[in-house]
Amino acid sequence: MNATASSNSQDSSLQKAPQPRSGIVWLASYPKSGNTWTRAFLHNLVKVMSGERDPQHINKLVRFSAGLAGKRLYIPLLGFEPTNEHRDQVAAVRHQVQRHVADSYEGLIFIKTHQALMIDRGYTTINFEVTAGAIYIVRNPLDVTISYAHHMGRSLDDTIAILGTQNAEVEVSEDQVHEVYGSWSQHVMSWTRKAHPAIYIMRYEDMLADPKKAFSGLARHLLFSPSDEQLVQAIKSSSFEELRAQEEESGFREKSKAAERFFREGRAGQWKDLLTPQQIDKIVKEHGEQMARFGYLPEQQVN
Question: Residue 55 and residue 219: Cα distance in Å, rounded?
């Protein structure tokens, strides 16, 4: 692997970079941690504040947000369709792709990413010069393991190994270039190692327990001023029940081919029923330091 964690370079770069009034706001998370839910809320919030009452459909979450891993964004710069053999070239033009997209929008654009904030073949995965800020969603890796296993169609043990793989990368696919995830701990540490006013951190479990408190905090951070009624409506329109109903009615294009459905359970604590003591111990052993930071250690593991 050629992707390596950058110690303090991203912190200093983000602080030195100009803070634009427009640019990219990253919606960042390790996979299956609440990214899609957050995107749905933001779309519904913007809609309801603009006087639109109908829920935003999950297959149209590109109205105010986008992704930047599509090959189509890279081919014009590279002059060819990249494969796994072209990861060096992809890493070298990633900043240009991000700048092009940022320049294509007036104001802020929300960009979904599962990239860790790391160095990929000598280049940071994130272009700080076109970054206005970031929202980072973190979820208990014990539950991430279960959700991610269903998403990939892999066993729990295989998924535990994936979460623990240092400098992990997602290979180039038919439609997308490679991305750098790192291990779960690397990913979390890369985005949260140092408090920064431009990075807003949310716990998935808090979003479940008190969505009004969690999402009102996010709205304030983004300098949105919804009324109480607008906030409640946006939360209702992006609830798990609403998102799952939409998927059952018309499918969800972001669902992997290996998964039965994308919106499966939407709850915390599944690991208590589905993981063995040995599996729990392995996850805690590999990720205990970051789990402790966010209150995820099982009670018996807390000293």
Answer: 18
Q: Which of 41, 35, 31, 28 is nearest to 211 (CA)?
A: 41
Residue (of 184, 167, 150, 155) closest to 285 by Cα position: 184
Q: How confident is the model at residue 92 (pLDDT cuts 50, 70, 90)?
A: very high
Between β-strands 108-113 and 179-180, what pairing exists: parallel, antiparallel or unpaired? unpaired
- Residue 34, classed as helix, strand or coil, is coil
Burial 171-193 (b: 16+ CB within 10 A, else e): ebeeebbbbbbbbbbbbbbbbbb
Measured from the Cβ of residue 298, the count of other Cβ atoms closer than 10 Å reads 17
How far is residue 144's CA from residue 264's CA, in Å, rounded to a whole number? 12
| Whole-number Å distance between alpha carbons of 125 and 116 | 7
Q: What is the pTM of this model?
A: 0.85
Q: Using CA atoms, how far apart are residues 282 and 29, in angstroms rounded to an integer?
A: 22
CA distance 46 to 124: 31
Q: Measure the CA–CA gap between 58 and 24, rounded to whole angstroms.
A: 21
Reduced to 3 states, what is the DSSP secondary structure of residue 122?
Answer: coil
Taking only the tens place, the pLDDT of each residue in 166-219 is: 999 999 999 999 999 999 999 999 999 988 888 999 999 999 999 999 999 999
Positive or negative, the CA dihedral 149, 293, 217, 111 is: negative
Report helix, strand or coil for 7.
Answer: coil
* Whether 214 contacts 137, CB under 8 Å: no
Report how far residue 127's alpha carbon sits from residue 10's, in angstroms, rounded to the nearest whole number: 10
DSSP-assigned beta bridge partners for residue 113: 28
